[in-house]
Amino acid sequence: MPSTLSTLHADRNAKNDVNGLLYFHIRSVIERFCHRLQNPVSKIRLILYCVDAASLPGCLSTETRASGFDRIEVSNIADEAYLGLARTLGTFTPLLKSHSDNPRATLITLFLNACEIADRQMGNRSDSKIQSSQMKQVMKYLPFSPRHTGTANSTEVMKMMIANDLVRDYDRIFAFYMDVVRFGATSKQAGVKMRQRNAIVEAWPMRLKKKPGEKGADEEFQNLMASSSTGAERYVEWVREG
User: Fold this and answer.
1) Which of 61-65, 142-146, 153-157, 171-175 is predicted most confidently?
2) What are phi and psi of 124, to 5 degrees?
3) Residue 181 contacts by C-beta under 8 Å, 6 or more apart in sequence?
4) C-beta of residue 237 within 8 angstroms of C-beta of residue 108
5) pTM here?
6) Burial of 51: CB neighbours in 10 Å, binned 0-12, 13-18, 19+
7) Which of 25, 40, 193, 240 could be 99's S-S partner, Cβ–Cβ 3.0 to 4.6 Å?
8) CA distance 161 to 203
9) What is the dihedral of CA 188, 190, 193, 199, to 10 degrees?
10) Residue 238 CB: number of other CB atoms within 10 A?
11) C-alpha to C-alpha distance for 222 and 5, rounded to whole angstroms
């Protein structure tokens, strides 16, 4: 978001009109995509299916399934509330190109609910030490005035409660989730392995990157607060076993 807005600021007068800037950005992206589709040398083909994700492989032609894909992105259907990890890997791994054809063929999964589920299972929300540590971190971004003590419904207190989600130790929480869901055994059974370092999309794209006091840290914090994200969004990339 910040990089997108900074690019657009140069061409627009209303530099604080975020919705207006995003409108021009999205329109520009769509226009470029449409122009690419119209290019006679482009080899882009779009096929839309309105089916359950687990049924998608059966809708593809034998030729398409045999040739395989270099990249498959499945959003967050690997979350336990949807297909779950085992079914997702079992369904889409066979559609990846073989390791000999393309050792970098990748299945991309997004986990939106994993950290929330794991955090509750770990009991972090009722752990006073963890909550106190997180609140101290929040107060580096949102200084708390003594006059707000006891006013649980004040705007300041509500903001701090929301901000508490932004400073959790999601690395530790997701590691717990990986053990519970048995990432290692499940991926081995499917014939893929998890990339230890993502090559296509950032593992934690929405988490806070800057430490309190660093240049741009406050702006980054306010942008995340204003969004619907918490920093718990985790992308995992899978490649076939060699």
Assistant:
1) 171-175
2) -65, -30
3) 80, 84, 85, 114
4) yes
5) 0.85
6) exposed
7) 240
8) 25
9) -170
10) 26
11) 14
